[in-house]
Amino acid sequence: MSKNKIGYSLLIVMILVFILSYFAINPIGGKNREGDAGSLISDMTLDEKIGQMLVAGVNGTQMDEPTKNLIQKHKVGGFIFFSDHLKNPEQTVQFLNQLKEANADNPLPLLLSVDEEGGNVTRLPGGLTHFPTNQKIGNANDPDVSYEVGTILGKGLKEFGFNLDFAPVLDVNSNPDNPIIGDRSFSPDPDIVSELGIHTMKGIQSQNILSSIKHFPGHGDTSVDSHLALPVVNKSLQELESLELIPFKRAIDEGADLIMVAHILLPELDDTYPSSLSEAIVTDLLRKRLNYKGVVITDDMTMKAVADNYGMGEAAALSVKAGSDLILIAHDAQKAVTAMERLKSAVKNGEISEERIDESVKRIINLKQKYHLDDTQSGEVDLTELNQAIKSINSKISP
């Protein structure tokens, strides 16, 4: 073979290697290309960046104009769904596909989320066998079972087209009078909560579903439901570190990507603001003391613990100043718009720097990239295999 032919062949090989390498990093038609978070942010308007920081509620059982407006005008980061929105498998898949289609021209995919904890807190529509409660799983105290539960939860969510589960619950059930946690917790023992919670989290993550551990810094020792009023926990930092914070710290060390912060007041740490709005909790405790680098999301801002004490826009601004990345506002599209308008005003008047917004948006983009999220539409749901797997779990747990 002549030198010219050898050189030509080498050139062709080099070109092919370059092309293949390029498209491995920049897939055709793919959103959320790896490694370009900074570039994406530099191309985004302030409105688009603020939109990414909102996880909003939906109305009804199909996409309506307010929801479409949140996607196409405000570029929201995602949505949360409740049982009222999800009537059956076919309708659920169709609803999520409508949102994905509406988001097709946006550069970042939607977070599509539910509270699918198992037990009594389940959102997925009829036809699915129920899991045992976390308390029953905790009584069995088998990490392999917990990992299997997480895996099945993740598979179920993926089947319908969701990509984010607000689970597992890492609250230590230390107060028998607690009206909201109860059997949602694995145990009053922080070691059991840690081990089973982490295995559940990793099982969910194994299915490429985001897992948000909750409710930081611990909702287990409250006697008030934060959906109805503001709970107060009179514990020192040392007391929290000896119980409530143990599962969260261990989960952070084991790769927690997303943490939901509760609406509870801890006067020993911050006597003014609930945890979700508190810099002392979100930044000083969670980010600095526990060295958490991931995404922080608030609990639902429409809960009365916040809604009865703050306007929606003010709560959103306080939470971002505290260090939160994602603001969760369920049920009402207009409240999400109000929050976005207030955040934009806060940046314009210098109350919040745009650099602070960029910090959160970078974390959000990196998380979406890490899990290779996209808006690929889902097909027909087959619950047979899932139900068999759930029944197998139930057979391993004592009634």
Automatic annotation (TrEMBL):
Keywords: Glycosidase, Hydrolase, Membrane, Transmembrane, Transmembrane helix. Its EC number is 3.2.1.52. Pfam families: Glyco_hydro_3. The chain crosses the membrane at residues 6-25. InterPro entries: GH, Glyco_hydro_3_AS, Glyco_hydro_3_N, Glyco_hydro_3_N_sf, NagZ_Beta-hexosaminidase. Residues 45-367 form the Glycoside hydrolase family 3 N-terminal domain. It catalyses: Hydrolysis of terminal non-reducing N-acetyl-D-hexosamine residues in N-acetyl-beta-D-hexosaminides. PROSITE patterns: GLYCOSYL_HYDROL_F3. It is an enzyme of class 3 (hydrolase). GO terms for biological process: carbohydrate metabolic process; peptidoglycan turnover. GO terms for molecular function: beta-N-acetylhexosaminidase activity. Belongs to the glycosyl hydrolase 3 family. This is beta-N-acetylhexosaminidase. The gene is nagZ.
